[in-house]
Design goal:
alpha/beta, binds NADP nicotinamide-adenine-dinucleotide phosphate, globular, 44% helix, 7-stranded parallel sheet, Rossmann fold
Length: 227
């Protein structure tokens, strides 16, 4: 499909992959509604791209409901919704995982994805069309020691996305799972992995994700390990 004039909502768009996705969609003349918690950063990105900023904490259901409502109020529809907002906690052995931080991460990585998918689904059912894209992770299924909490939060989102796809299919709604490998973003702040040099630039990964949406039959499960 052509992405020109398509209404695209992206969570976690103040930096990293979300910002790169927004820049890529903007270059294809999509209409953008961008969400994140950091007001200044979000407003800067939106100013640069002519997008609508909606301050949103995806862990708060009412914020996500408001995000969808603002998008529909401004543009009358939602063609593509990307659940990209995500966090990780410091890698530690299981015995040392900070349970409070683990809960907070699950609220964002799983519940944020759930709330976003649900609001998109409600609107797209009315439209009888739309695409939901969930940004997951390859590392979730690798079972790497010391990454159990992040991996579990993403595995839960991976599982949810499969159910979502099967529930949405008959309504003409596509659900796409993206499994990126390591990205050169601030995600790893304070704990940069040893092989960071081999990580992928966010802009190139964004290009692959967006290009997949332009083809007549997008891949439902897209793994990106090399760009
Ligand atoms: N980096 C990697 O190596 C890698 C690999 C595989 C998958 N991923 C996934 O890719 C996605 C993007 O990661 P990234 O590398 O771009 O990370 P990043 O540079 O840290 O950006 C994360 C984005 O999510 C937003 N965010 C975090 N918590 C939020 C919340 N509660 N509500 C709304 N927005 C929130 C942040 O904005 P605010 O702080 O302003 O809210 C920011 O815009 C994540 O889902 C991550 O799990 C990353």
């Amino acid at each position: 499909m052509t992405l020109q004039n398509k209404v695209v909502v992206i969570t976690g768009a103040s930096k990293g992959l979300g910002k790169a996705l927004a820049q890529d969609f903007a270059s294809r003349k999509s209409k953008l509604v961008l969400a994140a918690r950091s007001k200044t950063e979000l407003e800067e990105v939106c100013k640069e791209l002519g997008a609508l900023p909606v301050l949103t904490d995806v862990a708060q259901e009412e914020d996500v409901v408001n995000l969808a409502a603002k998008a529909v109020k401004k543009f009358g529809k939602i063609d593509i919704w990307i659940n990209n907002a995500g966090v990780r906690i410091k890698r530690t052995p299981i015995e040392e995982v900070d349970i409070k931080k683990f809960h907070e991460m699950v609220e964002i990585n799983l519940f944020g994805t759930f709330y976003g998918s649900r609001e998109a689904l409600k609107q797209m059912r009315k439209q009888k069309a739309g695409t939901i894209v969930n940004i997951l992770s390859t590392s979730a299924s690798e079972g790497k020691p010391t990454a159990s909490a992040y991996g579990a939060s993403k595995m839960a989102a991976i599982g949810f996305t499969k159910f979502l796809r099967n529930e949405a299919r008959d309504a003409g709604i596509k659900v796409i799972s993206i499994f990126p490998g390591g990205l050169k973003t601030n995600f790893h702040q304070g704990q940069v992995p040893k092989d960071y040099d081999r990580f992928m630039p966010a802009a190139r990964v964004a290009e692959k994700i967006v290009s997949n949406l332009e083809v007549p039959e997008p891949q439902e499960e897209l793994t990106i390990l090399k760009v």
